[in-house]
Specification:
By secondary structure, the protein is of the alpha+beta class. The protein has 3 helices and 4 strands.
Length: about 140
């Protein structure tokens, strides 16, 4: 094996209106841990904690200072461009950006389990179609 990268994301329900999203990315050069507190149902990031346990260069640790930039962002259309500005670019880390993006997507996907408790499958499909329209084959326009 030449190279291996692991990315694991879990979502826990702290209470009916708060999700705890925990993620890590680990490869031959990086070990990044990120924890997000996400409001439900607004999907607003209320808090973020970032730790770099292993990095290829010492300067990479500076990217953890971007964690405050995540507060207030919402997982909704346009999330990727917002996290690029928040934790990417010349003061951030592309690997952290990828991890946070995936964490937002997983938080949104996991919410279906919460929603299933309160609305019908038809309503879930309608809401999913609205959010995912044009983004995958299951919700193709037309």
């Amino acid at each position: 094996m030449l190279y291996k990268r692991e990315k694991v994301i879990t979502v826990k329900e702290d209470n009916p209106d708060k999700l705890i999203v925990e993620g890590y990315l680990k490869d031959d050069y990086h070990h990044i841990i990120c924890n997000l507190i996400v409001d439900f149902p607004s999907f607003e990031i209320k808090n973020a904690e970032i730790k770099f346990l292993s990095v290829p260069m010492q300067i990479c640790n500076e990217a953890a200072k971007c964690e405050g930039n995540l507060k207030g962002l919402q997982v909704k259309p346009g999330f990727l461009s917002k996290i690029r500005r928040a934790v990417g670019g010349s003061n951030g880390c592309i690997h952290l950006m990828e991890l946070v993006y995936d964490m937002g997507q997983v938080a949104f996907q996991s919410s279906r389990k919460i929603i299933n408790r309160t609305i019908s499958n038809q309503e879930i499909e309608e809401k999913s179609r609205e959010f995912m329209k044009g983004k995958c084959i299951a919700f193709k326009e037309g």
